[in-house]
Specification:
Two copies of one chain form a homodimer. Chain A is of the alpha/beta class and 360 residues long. The first copy, chain A, contains 13 helices and 14 strands.
Amino acid sequence: MGAPPAGRPGEATALGCTVVAMGSGVGFSVVGIEHPHVFELVEGLLTAGAHEVGHAGDDGPLMELYEQWRADSPRLDVPAALGHDAADLVVVAGVPAERAGHAAAALRAGKHVLSDKPGVTTLEQLDDVVDAERSSGRRWWVLFSERFGNRAVSEAVRRARAGTIGRVVDVVGLGPHSLLADQRPDWFWDPATSGGILADLATHQIDQFCAIADPADTAVVELISSSVGNVSCPDRPTMQDVGRVMLAANGVVGTHRVDYLTAAGLGSWGDCRLMITGTAGTLEVRANVDPAGADGGEHLIQVDADGTHRIDVAGVELDWAARLLADIRAGTDTLMTAAHVHRVCRLAVTAQTRARPWPR
Amino acid sequence: MGAPPAGRPGEATALGCTVVAMGSGVGFSVVGIEHPHVFELVEGLLTAGAHEVGHAGDDGPLMELYEQWRADSPRLDVPAALGHDAADLVVVAGVPAERAGHAAAALRAGKHVLSDKPGVTTLEQLDDVVDAERSSGRRWWVLFSERFGNRAVSEAVRRARAGTIGRVVDVVGLGPHSLLADQRPDWFWDPATSGGILADLATHQIDQFCAIADPADTAVVELISSSVGNVSCPDRPTMQDVGRVMLAANGVVGTHRVDYLTAAGLGSWGDCRLMITGTAGTLEVRANVDPAGADGGEHLIQVDADGTHRIDVAGVELDWAARLLADIRAGTDTLMTAAHVHRVCRLAVTAQTRARPWPR
């Protein structure tokens, strides 16, 4: 869980004029202030030049923080936020199990939707959102922030797709998180409201696998196996704090683990890893931290015939919001395809539904 | 494939007198000089004070290298090496598919056996060796050198067993190797002689998983899935250059990949990794190399409630040979149990036999 950004996104920056001019004309409302990701979503949109027309959600510490940060944004009720005349886009970041309902209502009201992940928690919800998307002609994006918000992951995926390490054969994705038990709302502990650990957290790893193994979104992705367990929360019997999912597509096997077991001493919310093996080399991402190693985050290491290279990703642009706004204005498809969003969500929910108990 | 050691093992060292005195009385012969591991096995035994009574094997570049290194060792025929009066132990390092036959013959001749891995390539071979072991009262060890020859792996396993990171939940083991196509003998390319990539390479990762998840050798280890493929050797149709095996025991899931895809620029024969997740922290081993990171090998990183720690493993003793010789002399069981050796070999061969094709 990240802290809200320190500055006031949308205020003047070195690129302020250009960015605002590019993004001007796109208004958004926010429905649900239930996960700190909402700060990342809103900050991205504001920085890219969109403007907020209002927000809706329940009272709580996160809402308090949000309203301190976005003091000029009017508080609305949910129907008003979903159907606001000045909103082209609705940002959805409520309780996970309620997001699909908000997204489908917004789509049917003629709005585009940007959802925090998980975008849906059941296959029925997914079918409903996709139906609303198709019948409305509007778009539903789920932001897989572990890729779109991390320069090393973004660049690793780009290089893998470009054939930099030959034909990709294997992907290992690890997404450990901190439990932070005392900071979690009630919905977090129950898969009926959170979606479960695979439908929620593993969407990131499934997104990365699909983006690497099948950028054209045309192959069949096989769900080989999945499992979930509760190994550290005996007083929360419904909690899932560990999960695994194995996928295959286009000759690439992907093995992914997510958990809430990150030790307090790590100094980051998690030690996310992405290890891509190709026929001509490897790409390794230490996304957040290199424990007891190099400082900072976003570490990308490439091994190829020429040697081992620490890739400087400082120049990689995190431009998801600018691309999203461009797609909204021009009807283009530069951020990610609808097929990709649908597939990742379907795989995550299916992996969750079919998950076997963690072995005892 | 390591080079033969530079010095003359068994010659005087700082600890020479003690070591020789402890190990004196154990003579060994060598049958099969088909993999550079034989140098590691023999060097370990000599350094621990055993003495070589002779060696047998086919002509070839490796035999030439061996006879330059061990100029005082008499060349024997195989029956003479297996039944040498002065040998208490036979070191087996021939063509993998022939090792079990040599091991069983040696056991039935009243010798102990130290085998390079893979010790067996079929379940029938395993049954025969175990039968010979039981009827003779002698012992058959397979040296899983990625653990017993690496201080970081040894120490990680010790810490995991000691509860340093709480209850272990998950293990990821990666064992990539260099293909080195122009240095490989004919038997390497055919699973009928090599055993296949899982029966051969993955024994290391299976050894590590079992040693971590079930040190008592009492649990049932479940083979969840396995697969093998050929992704880089189109002109060698029988070759397997990538494989995966997933295991579970005692609430621990283990996911393991082995391959021959290491890029030439790595500067090591492979980038072996071991990542252990517990309820109270993680242990991460970069066994051979930390690509584009810290120098050297044997990197062990522990994350716990107190912080991230790079563990200095310089003081960890690689004492497999001393323990083996002590076990031979005293009939003790300090190196590893017979049950462990049998289980690892059975799992590896079973994973190999049941492997599905790598997804296309």
